[in-house]
Amino acid sequence: MKFFIDTANLDEIREANNMGILDGVTTNPSLMAKEGITGEQNILQHYVDICEIVDGPISAEVISTDFEGIVKEGEYLATLHKNIVIKVPMIEDGIKAIKHFTKKGISTNCTLIFSAGQALLAAKAGATYISPFLGRLDDISSNGMDLIAQIRQIYDNYTFDTQILAASVRHPMHIIQCAEIGADVATVPLKAIKALLNHPLTDSGLEKFLADYAKGNS
Ligand code: G3P
């Protein structure tokens, strides 16, 4: 399973990249706003800055909701860097735009997926990635992980190339369960990636190894 980091924070992106386990980055307008990145030129420059840190797919989200606007924005974003993936919302004009981008060889990430039917439509349009939002389904007492499993089954039935990019991942168990089900990618906040490192037996085991070494070498 590939690991993307879900943030627009450059320090966190650098930290995850320096661990050597990072395959890509996802952003969205809310994550940009959280970092105080506002204004078209600043946002575009921020995408370029991210591309210079990580050599992998970098999702840049359009804000238009009509076909012509999505295409214009997406085609411009795609010129910023070879690794830019155009993030398009799951709406009718978004599906039409994904089909257009697919024909032009531009990579896409269909975002705000909350049902298997939406995932099927996005795959039919040729989306490179789809982003089902696990945590937000859990938030409304629906089972986000069941959706990942359902989409996995559907894509495998028809050997769709579209990759399942599990999003709105909130904690380490989400990551483990995504890997068990066979999500292609999980996009995760740095805190959840780092939580995978921890186990009390690792800490106590290391403490004892170092103490025993010190005893034998003092
Ligand atoms: O990748 C989508 C993500 O940014 C949304 O996460 O936690 O706001 O549901 P969250």
Describe the structure.
It is a single chain. The protein has 218 residues and is an alpha/beta fold. Strand 1, helix 1 and strand 2 form a beta-alpha-beta unit. It is globular, with a radius of gyration of 19 Å. The mean pLDDT is 97. The structure holds SN-glycerol-3-phosphate (G3P). The site of SN-glycerol-3-phosphate (G3P) has 12 residues, from helix 7.
Strand order within the widest sheet? 1-2-3-4-5-6-7-8
Mean pLDDT: 97
Ligand species: SN-glycerol-3-phosphate
Largest sheet: 8 strands, parallel, barrel
Name the assembly state.
single chain
The helical percent reads 40-55%
Distance between the termini: 44 Å
Strand proportion: 15-25%
Structural class: alpha/beta
Number of strands: 8
Order of helices and strands: EHEHHEHEHEHEHHEHEHH
Form type = globular
User: What does the radius of gyration come to?
Assistant: 19 Å
Q: Low-confidence parts, pLDDT < 50 over ≥5 residues?
A: none
Q: What is the number of helices?
A: 11
